[in-house]
Every structure is written in structure tokens, then in C-alpha cells.
Amino acid sequence: MSKGFSPGEFANEMTEEDPIPIPTPAYEGDFVLNEVLSLESGEILVNPTLHYAVYGQLNAARDNAVLVCHALSGSAQVGAWWPQLFLPGDLGLLDLTRDCVIGINIFGSCYGSTGPGSIDPATGKPYGPTFPLINVRDIVNAQVKLMDHLGIPQLKLAIGASIGGMTVLEWAILFPDRVARAIAIGVAPLGAMASASTTSSARPSCSIPHGKAATTHPERSPRAASRSPAPWHDQLQVSSPL
Length: 242
What we know:
The chain is 19% helix and 17% strand. It has helices at residues 78-81, 136-150, 163-174, 192-202, 232-235, and strands at residues 27-32, 36-38, 44-46, 49-55, 65-69, 100-104, 119-120, 125-126, 157-161, 182-185. Strands 1-4-6-5-9-10 form a 6-stranded mixed sheet, with helices on one face.
């Protein structure tokens, strides 16, 4: 991979009024799983695609990979929705002269990975409302295949918030030998009330767009999230590295 964004491109001094620079991926593309992927629901995805972006460069030992897991409305472009991670010096958590940062769009999203707008091989039409139920374990089982493809035996760090934090926890549970450090933000075991609250808050995102029939419209992409997460050093106050 070519050398990616360098923190040296930041200004030497920043003030609160300065816009946060957004790094550019060194590589962005698709990984197609040439298999029938069995899901926890009992359904399958045939040759599903994971869209991913890479910032920085893998070192010769391939031990500097950092996986940043996005929340419900995020994408593989970590720098677009969490640029604070890449701030220079003590302001940021990651250093692209040292770290290789990877973002992977989750199944069911609309930013490149297989989702309701993708073509169902069985029908030749978009999945729409027939898209199978996806859970976090399905996401991680697919992501580990991408890491195998990239030749990454162990992640230096996995970090994420919300659904991204759930993804990080699942990585640590399923593949503890493949995650050296994990930071899960805004995640905890759910009791009945918390589960109900999570379900009700997520339900609006599943509403049928434009009041039309229960189908998806790939040409009508949702607006990108306008808000970035809080700086990592603020968010870490409510997280516990595993």
C-alpha cells in the first residue's frame, strides 16, 4: 500500500477555532467473500461485500493495525466521522507514521458493504425488506476474514463506540488472541429497560423512506452524519479497556 496521510501535514499549532483536518485514506476498496456466509439468524449471504478504508501503512511485521469500528450511521471512512483520532501529538490517539488504521463498513449499511440496496443473487433484484437479520457476531465473523485476507494476525487495537463498541467487545470475546487491546465506548450489558430503549431509538432509522412501499432506493443515499464523536480523551472517561 502506498504511504497514507501524515500527521506532519497538520499545522504546527492549532486553536479551538481551527477546523479539524480530515485525513485521506491511503486505500479504499471492496473485499468480496467468495463463499456462502452463514448468519446467526440461520439465513445466508452469498458472496457478500465488505467496503473498507485504510489509513497509513502496514509495517513489515504487520503488527501495527488498528481497527476503528463505526456506529449505526458511520462508514469505512474513519477520518470523515472521527478526525479527532488523528490530531497531532497528545491531542490524538493515533499516529499515522506509526499506526495503520482500518475502517470497515458493516453489513446492512448503505456505504458500500452488502445491505438492503444490494442485489440479491437469488432474485436479481435489491434485497429491500427481505435483507436478512444481521447481528454483531455476523459482522465480526466477516471482518476477521478481511483481516486474514490482509495478512493481519493480530490487531494492535480495536476501538469503537455504540454499535462499534459492541463490535469491539465481540472481537475480544470471539478472537481474544487477535486483539492486543480493546476500547469499547458507550457499551454495557443490556437489561430489559436498556434493551427497550435501544430498540425504540433505532426504530426510526428503519422507517421506510419517502413514505413509499417497503423497498430501498440505492440512488437516494442518506445524508452523511453531520456530527463527529467527541474527542477520544473525553469519550474514554466512560469506557473501560478490556
